[in-house]
Structure formats: structure tokens, C-alpha cells
## 1
Amino acid sequence: MTDEITHRDASFKWQLAGLLGKCVIDLIFAASRMEVEGEDDIRPLLSSRRFIAAIWHSRILGISYRYQGWNGLALVSRSEDGEIIAQTLRRQGHKAVRGSTSRGGLRALSRLIKLLRQSSRPTIVIPDGPRGPRFRVQPGIILLAAKTGYPILPLTYSARRIKVFASWDRFILPTPFNRWRITYGTPLHVPANADPDTLERCRIRLETELNHITRKTDGRFGHVIL
């Protein structure tokens, strides 16, 4: 009985964290002015909903707000931070698939591949999560693209006024009544029959593009986040 109560209390705690997370994100971004860069070039891809959004761990908030209600899939780690992210994403209208490069990664990737073959849904992958190295793409997202045929869409955001945390990922938190910008990068297509060298070249290309658009977007607001 005690274990049941403890489990129920823990479940309630995480659900409350997800609700609070969504409310905070809504407050920040709904009360701010959004700018978009690079969207015109990829509108057909967005309309198809057949893409894998690649987002650095520190830049998840703005992107999840922008696409809430899209019924997307998100690969989220099994860590406590991941539980908060998963609960928040569920409140935003997405489905979280739990796993990472360090815990349950292959099983989570297999499940994602199966779900994407069943229906066309956008997918969010955080390629430097859950513990880094920061701004370094892990190979799982490249394998997912090769197996599903979905192109990878690099995405990032920044804002004029932000709090930069002293965490491994240098997580950013914008303030309300702000100006923020989403930037789309060049989509990356990974061949289904790619050999290891090609997969590694794709990994490097994605990492380079994500870092490029992140530095560019931060630079719009005078930020240099090292």
C-alpha cells in the first residue's frame, strides 16, 4: 500500500511539473514577439510533417512552443530532467518516446522507427542529450533518418533577453515581453544504404549546420554563448 501511494505521489509530482512547465513556456513566448528565418524555403517539408527536427538540448523551449498541438513524437531521455520535458511535451500535444544514447537508446530508436512507418508524424530529437557533450551530434539521429527516409531539419532559437544557466548545455531561458527568433537550417537527407563513412559525414554536416544557425541566431541579439 505504501509503495502504491509513493508511486501515485511521484506520478502526480511529475504531472504537476509538466503542467507548470507548459504554463511557464506559454507565458514567456505568448507575451513575446516572434521572428522567423528560413521558413519559406522549407514550407513544403513542414506541410508534409515527415521530418525529424534536430534541436540542441538548450534550445527546446521555443521550438516546443511553436509546434505544440502537432501530435509529434519526441525522443526524450529517461533522466529526471527528461521526465519533466516528457510531461511538458505531452501537455503540448506530443508523444514522448523514452530513451537516449546512454539509456534504452536502441529500443527507443526501434520504437520510433516503427511509429513513423505507421503514420507520418514530425519527430523531435535532441542530438546532444541527455548529458552532452554540448553541441555535439550523437549518431542515433542519423541512423533514424537512414531507416525512415525522413529528412533531418535543423532548428534553433534565441531571444533578446535570456538567462544562461551554468549547466552542461548552457540552457537558455528567455524572459517574457521579449523578442525571439526561430531559425531553420538546411535539411539533411541521409541515404538508406549509407555506409559508416557516409553516416559520419552526415553527422558532421548536421553538427556544423546546427552550430552555424545557433551562433547566427545568438549573434542577432548580441549573445556569444561559449
Note: The radius of gyration is 17 Å.
## 2
Amino acid sequence: MKKQKNDPIGMADAIEILDLIEEIGSRWDKMRKQWLREYKITHTQLKVLVILKEKGRLNFKDLSNHLSCAPCNVTGIVDRLEAGGFVKRDRSSKDRRIVNVVLTDKGKKIASELTKAVFPELSMLAGKVLKNLNNGEIKSLYKILPRLLGCFTSE
């Protein structure tokens, strides 16, 4: 396909960019699956454990915002983590309608283990991936990638 006058890049360039994004995703997925198999949890459960480790207690709405999903989806995730003994529900003393999710001792332990096991590798990977970018480019990438992802959602 011939590059149009107003097109910022040609078709070959667009395909190459998307292929590179796919390869980065594939390599990340392979590493992530290795960690998850070891701890017998899902990626979303890992995210919840890490978020709660960093943020402390969160209500379902705030947790759903961190996970970029609907609060009703968080219920099932929390149910499974609660069944595994990793989290518990804690009603707010100020407003009984508000239910917070907090890590149990078991959840804190696995979150710490995951952080110790995964964070150095994740930092190394991020360093390798981002080492050729300056801070401004990294911030731009952080803004651009969600916009690219938004192109794939159905209207």
C-alpha cells in the first residue's frame, strides 16, 4: 500500500511498530506466566496483591480503578483471593456500606515474596526496555500506549 500524503508513516512502518509491540508483550507474557505458575495465582490476582501491598486497604471502587475494570468484576477476583486466604473483606466503621479489601498475613507474605522475586527481574527488564529512552520519552510512551490500546476497543 502506497503512503498517502497526509499519513504520518507508511504501512510497512505501521506493521513494524505493531510487531515490536507484540514482541514486547509476548516476552513479558512468558516471564509473567513463569512467576504465576510458581505461585499458583493469576495475573490479575498478582496485581491485586501488589496494589494492596502498596496502597493498603482499598474499597471495591478504588480497587476497580487501579485494575481498570468494573467493580462487579472485582467481586469475583476478591472472592477467589479470599478463598485462598490472601485477602479479607473489612467493613468501614464509618459507613457500613463501604467494604474494604485488605491483605491477610498470608497475603502480605506472598505479596512480599512476589515483590522480592519479581521486582528485581521486572526492574532489570524495564531497564533494558527503557534504557534508550529519556524521561520525557518514557512519559510520552505511558500516555501513548493506552491511546493505542483504545483503538482496538469496539464502539
Note: The chain has a mean pLDDT of 83.
## 3
Amino acid sequence: MTRTSRRLLRRLATLGSDPQPISPRTAAMRPRTEGAELTLSVCPYCAVGCSQRVYHRGGEILSIEGNPESPISAGHLCPKGAATYQLHVNPHRITSVLYRAPYSDRWEQRPLGWAMERVAQLIRTTRDRGFVERTESGERVNHCLTIASLGGATLDNEENYLIKKLLTGGLGIIPIENQARI
């Protein structure tokens, strides 16, 4: 028997006999999610709809993991879903948009909030300009044919249903299509 194998056998013989196998430093450690608020969410990537647990404190996301209580995925996430945390905390994440004003020859950087407000204003203006309450014969139609919508394939049935209700019932938009069907 070699000296290395004797050392290994001695170590194996004492394995588990230490009453304090955890160091004081390790015992003092706490999970970063301890005391954090838990919010259930849905993975943003595909239409499967895997449930996720989002741990956050004071407006800061601490961790995102699969939800073991999910009947869809039982807590398992694909590589994209497992990287959702990086989607939110990545220092290289784009938080502004490029905007080119009408007739301008250059792009300007604008905050995302400004872009969302601008899109809302343009939708409202276009809808008000193209909204038809009644046809010439007096039939009530309440529709807008000057705006169309093309949805994405990453939405699940429930999200598509709510978007359809908003666009048709709320805004009167008729031309609605989804990329998953094309």
C-alpha cells in the first residue's frame, strides 16, 4: 500500500466523525435573499410560461429562480430563463433609446420614459384622428383603421387575450395580428 493511499484511508476513516464539520465563518453566512420580499412572475422569453420567483428588497432585484410549485416547469428553467436575473442587473443593459426627429439627419439619445410617453402620445393622436364612431348609414362601429398591431411570439394565451381586449375594446383597433400565426 502506498503512502498516498494510506493517507486517503485515514481521512476516509475519520470522515463524518467531526462534531463541527462547518466552520464558524460558514455557519455565520446567510443567504442574500433572507428577509427579501418574494414576488411570483413569469419568464419573459417564450410562450411556455414558466413561473419564476423574484426576490427583491427596496426596489432592487436580488435573485430570480424557478418556482418549484409551478405545474408547468416544477422549478426548472431553460438557460435563457435561468439568465433572467442578468437581463435586469447587467451593467451593459440599454436603458435609453435612439430617436431621430422628423427631417433630422442625426440620432439623439433619449430616456426610455420619454420614448414610452412619446409612443402613447402618437397612438392617442393617430387614434383620435382616425376614430370612426358611426358609418355614413348611422351604424355604430367604434373602430380605428389607422393603427395596426403585430404581436410577438413570446406572449402566452392570457397575455394575447388581454392585449386583444385593450386594442379592440379600449382603442377600437381592428387590424391585429400575431407573429406566431404568420
Note: Residues 96-181 form one domain.
## 4
Amino acid sequence: MIQRVITTVIMAAQVILLAIELVTKYDTNGRQLALALTNVVTVGLYLAVGRIAHRRYGITLHWVVLVIIAASVWLDALGNFQHWYAQYWWWDRLTHAIGGLAVTVGFYMVTVALWYARRLAMSWRVLNLYTFCLAQTLGALYEVSEWIGDELFDTHRVQGLFDAQRDIFFNMLGGILVLLVGSWWRMRRRVVNPSQDAR
């Protein structure tokens, strides 16, 4: 019940955010379109991954994943609405760290559920690496999309020579935090998959 309520509330909030991004005038048209696309693609990926995981493996993504993902999108939006990216040097770093954390949490929950169901034949260390690499690949693709937007639509999203590298670094920090918490949880609960960890 709580899963459905929270999902409905957050989806409504994302629709409201999308309307604000498309209707109000707070930046250049290119940047506004890029921000709206970030919202749509992020929510779309969550829904697509959730649907595939549920249909194929019976896995339901926990509502916490959606909350973290929505928080990262809203932080990005607020940074643009209030021009906090220009005012605060740390705002971009914060949004990328939380974004990296959000993506890694989503992949982590799916892969751990598959591991429990013995659908993934790998050790816990390899599972961590697999999850981390998936999330970082998505983060790197996002940086490529920023560069493409600048080249084709003059969005001015890449700020400075080392902007993409710095963004990827903070995405990585968010992902590492997820792996550290996940490993701590596993050691505390002594989670063991006999078919893999016994090797």
C-alpha cells in the first residue's frame, strides 16, 4: 500500500516539475529542454527497469529507489531554477554525487534480488563490481548527452575543461557509498549465497 501511495505522489510531483520546466521561463530554451528531458528520461528509465524486473523476475523496486531518484532530479531542477549552480560551487558536485548514488541504488537492488533468487551466478564481489560499472556507464552516457546538447543545441551545460571529469568523479563517489553501505549490511546480516560464496 505504502509503495503505491509514494509512487503516485512522486510521479505527480515529477509531472508538476515537468510542467514548470516547460512552461516557465527561467533559462535559455535549450537548457530548459535539456532539463525537461532529464526528468522524462530518468522517470522513464525507472519505470522501464521496474517493469522488466517485475515481469521477468517478480522483483518490485523499493519505493526508496524512486525517492532518491526524484530527489536527484529535483536538486538539479532547483539548481537551475534558483541559479544555484552559478552561486554555489558545491551544488553541481552534490547533485552528481546524489545522482550517482540514486542510479547505483536502483541497479544494486535489482542485482541483489536476482542474486538471492540465484539468477546471477557470481560472487558478491563481482556483483558489486557489476552494479558499480552499470551505474557508472549510465553516468558517463549522461555526460556525453550534455556534450551532444552543447554541440547541437547550444545548451551550455558543460562548464569548463574538467567539468565532465569532475561530474563523473562525484557520480563515482555516490556509487562507492552505496557499495560500502551494501557491504556493511551484508556483513552485519551475514548474508550468504551457498551456491556462490562457498567457492
Note: The longest helix spans residues 124-153.
